[in-house]
Amino acid sequence: MFSGMNDANAMYRAWRLAFLPALALLGVALPILFLSLIEQYLYYVRPLELIPIYGTAWLLLAGLVVPVSLIAGLGLSAPKPRSMRRIRGILALFLIGLAAAEVLAALAHGVLVWVRTFGLLATIHFPIELAALSLSTGVFLAILPRGRAAILQRYSVFKYGAALGALSLVTLPFSGWSTGDTATFASFSVTAATPLQRPNILLVTVDALSAEHMSLYGAERLTTPRLDAFAREATTFDRAYANGNFTTPGVSSILTGTRPWTHRALQLLSWPIRETRANSLPAMLIRAGYQTGYVATNPAAGATRNGLGSYFGFAASDRVPSIFVCRDGLERVLRYQCAATLLPPFGLVQMLWQKTGQFLGGGSPNRHFDPRVAMQSALEWLAGTDKRTPVFLWVHFLPPHAPYAAPAPWLGQFDSSQTARDVGDSDAKQKFLFARVTPARARTLEARYDESVKYVDYYIGEFLEQASRLLGPNTAVIVTADHGESFAHGYGGHAGPGLFESIIHIPLLVKLPSQSRGARTSQLAEQVDIAPTLAVLAGITPPSTWEGRSLFEIGGPSKTDATTPKLVFAMNFEENSRRSALNTGSVCLIDGRWKLVHFAGALHYPLMPQLHDQLYDLSADPRELSNRISAEPAEAERLRWLLSSELARHGGPLRENQY
Ligand SMILES: [Zn+2]
């Protein structure tokens, strides 16, 4: 009897220990990490949506750690010979140390996030250094009897914290960004008398492809031989611009025909607002009878991720092999899973998974970015489409997006040094942190980027050839980018307040059906012009809410009067809530040779210098080296007035029903 009680007690203690790290993570570390990210979440969700995001994170984490706890529990409680006691003891110490390490790591991360808002400690890299520090402190605590006792005393805090998180699961069935898009279609007409038979449309977007790094646009290195060849039978727009400066706003402007101040997909995981989704290019095309499909190898670019998934009959971002938990398929069930997986534990799991895969030699280390993955899915789908109905296919390639290291034979072509040859070591320090990169390393990174441009150029060439064979001559082909990439001005990568030419000047090639001669034009163009161009080609009247104009006078009247001068607007409002008036961010206006860049509100980025408005004469100074804002006060004033009146027109707070 007495021995039975003892056994039951030992069993109870074993299971308590087994679940200690899981409960510490779910009950204390998760709330701390979540609180440290709250500002970021509130940029694009309503406060009430925080609960289902938290619930989703809780659920996904529990899915990861509960099975491990069960295994540990079985290991600790199963009857075992005396010789196993030592191993059991070590396992128990490990579990206690792990629980302490998780809580310490979360605390350190939270403090780091807070300190960074003052521009300090920007170069400390989480999770590697902090994870190592927390883990060793945790192990140290577990070895000391007092430390062990202190951790075990907090068991009920862990338990109740985890139980409280579990309560938030109740909100999951009721939560969701509304997907009732199909009910709110604006009226639009399909012109029956279009002289062209409605063409197939092939839209290729390349992530982070800067025009100035392409031989097609005059770069010294031969980076784009395949696109140079393609341009011989297409129209090349020499002055094409992205409307945003990172993936989400850029892709959203291409697909919705509206600028970021209108579609409001201003943060990495935010969606274009309802009316821009309902009037988007894929929505128009699917209603006009097109077969629509997309493949995206950047998880952030996919149409489902941007709320446009219901307008695509075929989607293949899920086929990209990766355990990245932010995936289209899962998003349909758990609406907030992408937002939830922004939390550091998921990044850590992802990194460990990738490292393990690389260590075991499972495929190319850059498999996730491999253009062949996108090509294969896209071509398979094309081959199976109905040849009597027109096709709209959108393919998004991730290279040359960081990490830049391309596979052989491209790697090393423009820089034979042995550095930055690994996907783990070929990322430019983002934004102002780039100022800390040595000139030699900056040059190497730029060369690695160029190698990656040549790498993706090769596969774009292959893809266009094979797709054209499947689609036939009645096909319009567009090749463009979501944004560019910077290696100058002490500013690396993209996003943030930087609107330099390297980040927003993008390639734009349009091959009209049966076009066989190349042309170049220096007319200004921007991403929002792509949708009206394609709509007109497809015999669809562009909705009045679109902000671009058709690039050609073809197939009927284009909505905008070609005699009004073309103005280009690019912007970043990632530090502004998408719901409120747009008064924190950067926005630029390009009018002919002039470019005005305006910074507004209390921007804060690590190592950010004081930002002042800039005026550049792009024809005399294409590298933006000389700020003319005081030298040309009249020009600056005229552009400021234009910019502020447009911003006043589009930048107000959103109405609640616009989501
Ligand atoms: Zn991008």
Brief digest:
With 659 residues, this protein is α/β, with parallel strands linked by helices. The protein has 21 helices and 15 strands. It has two domains: 2-174, no CATH class; 201-564, 3-Layer(aba) Sandwich (Alkaline Phosphatase, subunit A), CATH 3.40.720.10.
Structure notes:
Strand 7 and strand 8 form a beta hairpin. The protein is built from 21 helices and 15 strands. The strands form 3 sheets. Strands 1, 2, 3, 4, 5, 6, 9, 10 and 11 form a 9-stranded mixed sheet that branches. It has 2 domains: about 1-175, no CATH class; about 200-565, Alkaline Phosphatase, subunit A (3-Layer(aba) Sandwich), CATH 3.40.720. The chain is globular. The chain has about 650 residues and is of the alpha/beta class. Bound molecules: zinc ion. Zinc ion binds near residues 207, 246 and 247.
Largest sheet: 9 strands, mixed
Average of the residue pLDDT scores: 87
What structural class do helix, strand and pairing data support? alpha/beta
Shape: globular
Q: What is the name of the CATH topology of the largest domain? A: Alkaline Phosphatase, subunit A
CATH structural class of the largest domain = Alpha Beta
